[in-house]
Automatic annotation (TrEMBL):
It comes from the Eukaryota. The keyword GTP-binding does not apply. It is found in: Membrane. It is a single-pass membrane protein. Gene3D superfamilies: Ribonuclease Inhibitor. The lineage of its organism: Eukaryota, Viridiplantae, Streptophyta, Embryophyta, Tracheophyta. GO terms for cellular component: plasma membrane. Residues 67-191 form the Disease resistance R13L4/SHOC-2-like LRR domain. This is BnaC04g47830D protein. Residues 1-23 form the signal peptide.
Length: 413
């Protein structure tokens, strides 16, 4: 046992020495200084095999430069500025640490950088204008910090950007027009900031745009039809802003659009019938707007729909029986409208429906006792309608009372 241990030590010692000779690491001094400053767990002051240190990868001629540094999720504190001495970095992930103070402007000197994630720290101040020099950058994430000020115009030079994420800060000003000139952009998230103004129409020029999330800002104006025109959009989240105008008919061009969340705005008009074209639609949430007209039966063509929330709008008319074809539907929330007629019997076939909220409408008729046959239904809210009669005896018997909220007081006159 003792002999084996000794030989193992010798072998390890030998390997380290030979690798050092080969590596000729130029970033050695920088790494040692970074470790002295940040105390990276798993890095050893005296292990000389730097390229084998955890959370980094070397590259370049003779493997002599650090190209990848992933210090994510280590709760590190200290001065991150020293990292910019690793001048050949292509990939730098400092997300999920406890860095404070200004974002090091010297990261703008890392001319080979392609990926930079500084999210989930406590960086303050502005996004450094120096980041405009990072011409090779494909992904920039400064989300969830304490950044203020405007998105700097210098970033318009980042023509390779595919992902640009600045959410969860205190950024103000408007979304720059030049975002529409970033022709490789796939992901743009700026939610939970103080942004004002309109969505630049130019965003529609971004041919690759798949994810646009701008919720919880102070944005206004119309949802530009251009945003849908390239047809690649998959996720659109604009909840909790001050958007006005109608939902553009062009939404129907985006057959891969799976999630539309546009609640808590001031949208008006009818839902475009073209919504039936959006075959991949999974979530559609447009509650708390001033939408009107009928609830379009075309939703029934979106066979993957699991959530449809149109609550607190001005919808009128009967609930389309066709919605009973939506076999994947889990939540149907149509409360707070002016819907009338009866609860369609076709809903009884919705085997995955968990929540049905039709409260605060003008529905009449009675509660069908066949609701018993809906295996997943846990929440049924029918209060404030003109539904008459008793809760069918069968309902009380066939469900766990604890898993139910049944309310159907008559609507107050
Ligand atoms: C290596 O580092 C450890 C602690 O980090 C220390 O106790 C030890 O003396 C060092 N060895 C040498 C040879 O420097
Ligand atoms: C790589 O290592 C070889 C041999 O040690 C050396 O001659 C060469 O100059 C090195 N190249 C660079 C770019 O450092
Ligand atoms: C961090 O270190 C750099 C030099 O590496 C220095 O210029 C800067 O002032 C330091 N920042 C703080 C907040 O100490
Ligand atoms: C950007 O940062 C946010 C917050 O940490 C995170 O949710 C998101 O996944 C990150 N994006 C990428 C592409 O890493
Ligand atoms: C934006 O934020 C910066 C920094 O907090 C502030 O100086 C500036 O007045 C703000 N601008 C607007 C228009 O609110
Ligand atoms: C963005 O593109 C438009 C049209 O393609 C062009 O007119 C405009 O000058 C460009 N803006 C910048 C800042 O490059
Ligand atoms: C519906 O989709 C078809 C092809 O998938 C397309 O030609 C048509 O323009 C779309 N209609 C609308 C209103 O978006
Ligand atoms: C409705 O949306 C507005 C923003 O348009 C928001 O201020 C309000 O709190 C929302 N109401 C509810 C009940 O969510
Ligand atoms: C519905 O979802 C499934 C599973 O995610 C997917 O394979 C299918 O293509 C989707 N259907 C449509 C019409 O998008
Ligand atoms: C329910 O309302 C519809 C439309 O308002 C009406 O035509 C129908 O007669 C009503 N049914 C009952 C049972 O009151």
């Amino acid at each position: 046992m003792a002999f084996w241990f000794l030989s193992a030590l010798l072998i390890v010692g030998f390997l380290s020495k030979s690798n050092l000779v080969e590596a000729q690491l130029s970033d050695e001094a920088a790494l040692l200084a970074i470790h002295r400053e940040l105390s990276v767990p798993g890095w050893s002051d005296n292990g000389t095999d730097y390229c084998n240190w955890v959370r980094l990868k070397c590259g370049g001629a003779n493997n002599s430069f650090v190209e990848m540094l992933d210090l994510s999720g280590l709760h590190l504190k200290g001065n991150a500025t020293l990292i910019s001495d690793l001048t050949r970095l292509k990939h730098l992930d400092l997300s999920g640490n406890s860095f404070t103070g200004p974002v090091p402007a010297s990261f703008g000197d890392l001319s080979e950088l392609q990926f930079l994630d500084l999210s989930l720290n406590r960086f303050v101040g502005r996004i450094p204008v120096e980041f405009g020099s990072l011409r090779g950058l494909k992904s920039l994430n400064v989300s969830n910090n304490l950044l203020v000020g405007e998105i700097p115009d210098e970033l318009m030079m980042l023509e390779r950007l595919e992902e640009f994420q600045v959410s969860g800060n205190g950024l103000n000003g408007s979304i720059p027009q030049w975002i529409g000139n970033l022709s490789n952009l796939r992901v743009f998230t700026a939610y939970e900031n103080e942004l004002v103004g309109e969505i630049p129409k130019g965003l529609g020029l971004v041919s690759e745009l798949e994810l646009l999330n701008l919720h919880s800002n102070k944005l206004e104006g119309k949802i530009p039809k251009e945003v849908f025109e390239k047809g690649k959009l998959k996720v659109l989240v604009l909840t909790q802003n001050r958007f006005t105008g109608e939902i553009p008919e062009e939404v129907g061009i985006c057959s891969d659009l799976s999630s539309v969340r546009i609640g808590n705005n001031e949208l008006v008009g009818a839902i475009p019938r073209a919504i039936g074209n959006v075959s991949g639609l999974t979530y559609f949430e447009a509650d708390n707007n001033s939408l009107s007209g009928e609830i379009v039966a075309e939703f029934s063509k979106c066979s993957n729909l699991t959530l449809l929330n149109l609550a607190a709008n001005g919808f009128a008319g009967a609930i389309p029986a066709e919605l009973g074809q939506l076999m994947n539907l889990q939540e149907l929330i149509l409360s707070g409208n002016s819907l009338f007629g009866e609860v369609p019997k076709s809903f009884l076939g919705l085997g995955n429906l968990n929540k049905l909220d039709l409260s605060n409408n003008r529905l009449n008729g009675t509660i069908p006792k066949e609701l018993c046959s809906m295996p997943r239904l846990q929440y049924l809210l029918l209060d404030q309608n003109s539904i008459r009669g008793e809760v069918p005896h069968e309902i009380g018997n066939c469900f766990q009372p604890s898993s139910w909220i049944i309310a159907f007081r008559a609507r107050k006159a």
